[in-house]
Amino acid sequence: MGVSNLRESFVKKIIVSVVLLLVMLPYSGCKMHSINCSIYDDPIPIPHNFYQPASNSHYSSVPKNYQHILAPVFAVKEINENSQILPNISLGFYILNCYYVARMTYKATLSLISTPHRFIPNFKCDTQSNLMAVIGALASEISANMASIFATYKIPQITYGSFSPVQGDKTLFSSLYQMVPNEAHQYRGVVRLFHHFKWTWIGLFAVDDDNGDRFLQSVIPMLDQNGICYAFILRTAKRTFMEELMVMVFRQLEKYSLLEDTKVSTCFVYGEDPSMATLRMLCFFAGLSGLPPVGKVWIVTSQWDFCATTIQRFWDIESFHGTLSFTVHSKQPPGFQAFVKSIKPSWAKRDGFIQNFWEQAFSCWLKKSSGDLGSKTACTGGEKLEILRSPIFEMSMTGHSYNIYNAVYAVAHALHAICESKSKSRRLVEGGSMAFCNVQPWQLHHFIKNIMFNNSVGESVHFDKNGELIADFDVTNWVTFPNGSFMRVKVGRLAPLAPLGKELTVHDDQIVWHRSFNQVLPLSLCNEYCYPGYSRKKKEGEKFCCYDCAPCPEGMISNQKDMDTCLKCEHDQFPSKNQNQCIPKVLTYLSYKEPLGIILSILSVSLSLIATLVLRIFKKHKNTPIVKANNRTLTYILLVSLIFCFLCPLFFIGHPGKVTCLIRQMAFGIVFSLSLSTVLAKTITVVLAFMATKPGSGMRKWMGKRLTNSLVLSGSFIQVGICMVWLITSPPFPDKDMNSLKEEIIVECNEGSASMFYCVLGYMGFLATVSFTVAFLARKLPDSFNEAKFITFSMLVFCSVWLTFVPTYLSTKGKYVVAVEIFSILSSSAGLLVCIFSPKCYIIILRPELNTKEHLIRRQK
C-alpha cells in the first residue's frame, strides 16, 4: 500500500495504493492485466511492463475467479464511502496476475518494490506510491514465493488461501498473515467427520507436488492414530499447461479401477488447485472411455471450489453431488449482489480483466475485439451475470472472495489505527485537517497482529499469535443439479477452539448424499460391521481396518458395532442370548409366594400338626401298656422335638435376614440332636431292660430316669456347644451369590464356616449311626412292644436321607439348595414319626384289644 507524502497545508484527498496479487487465468498463456476503477479521482499509474490489454488470442481461463477482483473493489468502495474509516483518505489499488508460474510471481513481486514504469528491483525514486501491504495469493506456493521477498522488506502480506509453510517452519514468513485458520484444523475436522459417520476405509487424493507430500505427511499419521485406514493414495496431476495436464490425466485413467472399489465410498481430497479441475477431467474422460461412473463422498478442504474453465462449462458435475467441504465461516456482505449486478463491460476505464471475463463467461466477442468472430456471436454488453451457471460465476460472495474482502478491511483498520496513534503527537494544520502520517510498511505489523474489528456483517476479524485468522469452519454440502449448477448448503460447524470432542457439529438429516446411495448413509469400510455380539479379529497381512468378526466368548458381550474386544458384564448382570447386552440379574430365594415355597410350607405345618395329633393320642392313652412300655417321658420328648423339626423349615423359607440366618441352622441342629438323643435313649433303654431281666444281672442299677435324662441332655448339649462355637467364631450371615447362577442373584445365608456346618451334620450322623447300630442289635430281643426294630427302620430312613443330602446339597444351586435341605429335614423327621409311631397308633386306635396287660402277659408266655 503506497502513501503519497503530501506536504501542502490543505489536503483534500490522500491516495493509498493497495496491491492485490490475484490468480485469474491459471491454465492459459495470456498476458497480465490490471484494474483501476473509475471511482477514484487520482488513478495510480500501473507499471508498463505489467499492463497489456487483452488480446484476441484464444485461451482458456476461469471466469469465476473474476469475483476475486470484485471483492476488493467492493471493499474499497465501502471504505471510501465510510467516514469512520480513514477519513480524508481514499484507497486505491492495482491487481496483477502471476499465472501460477514462479518466474512471473517473482517478477510481479519485484515490480511492486520498483519505480513505476521502470523495472529496477530494490531501487525506487518515486514518492507518489509507497507500497504498504500486499494481499495474495490463493495458492500456498505463490504465497510462499511472494513472502520470500516481502519478508526481506518487512512488507505485510495477507494471504486469502490456505498456506502450508515449508516443513512447517512459519518463521521463514514472519511478514505473512492468513485469512484462513491453520490447515491442520481442517485435517482434524475431517478425522472427526470420519469418526462421526464411522468411515474407516477411505481413499486419499493428493496433488503430485511438495504440497501434496506435506498433506500426506500430516494426514496419514493422524488417520492411523484415530483408527482410520486408506485403501489407496492417488496422486493427481500438478499444475501445468493444459496440454500436459490432459496427458497426465489420461495416464491416471489406468488407476481408475481404484475408484470402482465399492468398499471405498469416501475420498479425502487435498483441495488446493488444480485438484478440482483434475478430478473433473478424470471423471469426464473416464465417461468418454466407457468406464462406469463412480459415486463417492468427496471430502475436501477450504481451497476447493466448483469452478470451471471455459472448455469445461458444459461438463457434467454429477459425480460431485453430495460433496462435503470445510469452508471458512462466512456471511454475505449487504449490497454485494446489487454491486455485482451493476457490472458491465464498460463499467471501469482501466479494468483489463473485464473483457476476457465477459467473453469467456458468455462465450461471445465484445465489439472492440478484433479478428474473426468464428462461431461466437457478438456480445451486447447487456448480458445478465445472474443467468450464468454456478461453476462459471456466482452472484453470492464465495469464501475466498470473503477472505479478500476481510483482508482489505484489515489493512484499512490497521492504517486507521496507526494514523490515529500518530495524530496525537502531530500538529493540526490550518483548517482543522489532519496531516497524514508518514507510515512505513514495517510499522503496520504491530497493528495488523493486534487488529480486532467487526466487518459489515458483524463477523469478528482478528489474528492469533501466529498471524492466522481465528475463525470457525462451515461444513458445506454441495448439491448439484442437472443443468450444471450447484447450491451450497451449510450442514454443520467446525470450531477448532471448542472443548475436545465438541469441535464438530453435523446435522445429518440436512445432508444430501450422492444419488447412488439413495439418500442412505454411505458405508466406507474394508468389511461389514461386526455387529453386537461379535468382536473384531485381525486379519493376518491386512491393515488393521480389515478384520473378521468372531462371536463373543461365553459370559461376555459386545453392545456396539466394531468392538475390539468383548466385555464382561457387571457382577449383578448377565449376557443376553445374543450376547449384545447385559441384563440385570433377578434376586432369587425360596419365597412363600412361589409354588415350591407354598408346598413346602403346607407340608411343614401339616406334618407338625400330625406330630401334635400323635402326641395328643399318646397323652390321652398314657396309661395304656403300649405307651408305658418304652418310657413315656422319652416318647413325649421325641414327639415334641419332632414337632419342632417339622417347623424348622419355616426358618428356611422367605427372604434371608440376619436373625433367620443365625437361628435356622442352629435350631435345626439342636432340635434334631434332641430327637436323635431321645431315640438313642429309647434304644438303650430297651437293651438295658432286656439285660436287667436276667438273673443276677447288675444292669438293674442303670435302669431309671437318670440314665435316660443324662443321655438326652448330654447328646443335646454337645450339639449346643458346637453351635455356640460356630456363632462365636464365624456365624452365618445374609449374603448374595452373584456367580453360581447365570441369570440370578441368589439371596442366601452364608454359613460363615462350612466346616462348622459339617460338624453339626457330622454330629447328627454320629448320633444316628449309634442309634441305628444299637437298635439293629436289639431288634430281635423278645418283647411284646419292642421298639428296637421300628427304631432300626427309622434310623435306616434317616441315614439314607442325609447320606443322599450331602452330594445333592453340593451339586444344587440357588433356592433349590434350601429346598433340598428342607426336604431332607421333613423326610427324615417323617421317617422317625412314621416308623416309630405308626405301629403304636395303629394298635391304640384300630386294635385297642392288643393294648392290654393280658395280651402283654400272653405274648410273654
Structure characterization notes:
The chain is built from 21 helices and 27 strands. By secondary structure, the protein is of the alpha/beta class. The protein has four domains: about 1-180 and about 330-460, Rossmann fold; about 185-325 and about 470-515, Rossmann fold, CATH 3.40.50; about 535-580, no CATH class; about 595-860, Rhodopsin 7-helix transmembrane proteins (Rhopdopsin 7-helix transmembrane proteins, Up-down Bundle). Strands 8-7-9-10-11-16-17-18 form an eight-stranded mixed sheet. Helix 14 (about 630-645) packs antiparallel against helix 16 (about 660-690), helix 16 runs antiparallel to helix 17 and helix 16 (about 660-690) packs parallel to helix 18. Residues about 1-60 and about 425-435 have low confidence and may be disordered.
Topology, element by element:
Elements (H helix, E strand, L loop, with lengths): L1 E2 L10 E8 L45 H15 L7 E8 L5 H11 L21 E2 L4 H11 L6 E3 L16 E3 L4 H15 L3 E7 L2 H16 L3 E8 L5 H11 L13 E4 L5 H14 L8 E4 L22 E6 L7 H6 L12 H9 L1 E2 L11 E2 L20 H25 L20 H6 L2 E3 L5 E3 L10 E8 L5 E9 L9 E3 L27 E5 L8 E5 L4 E2 L9 E2 L4 E3 L6 E3 L1 E3 L6 H26 L4 H4 L3 H16 L1 H4 L5 H35 L12 H25 L3 E5 L6 E7 L3 H24 L10 H24 L3 H32 L6 H8 L1
Parallel strand pairs: 2-3, 2-4, 4-5, 5-6, 7-8, 7-9, 9-10, 10-11, 12-13, 25-27
Antiparallel strand pairs: 1-2, 11-16, 14-15, 16-17, 17-18, 19-20, 21-22, 23-24, 26-27
Helix pairs in contact: 1-10, 2-3, 4-5, 6-7, 12-14, 12-20, 14-16, 14-20, 16-17, 16-18, 17-18, 18-19, 19-20
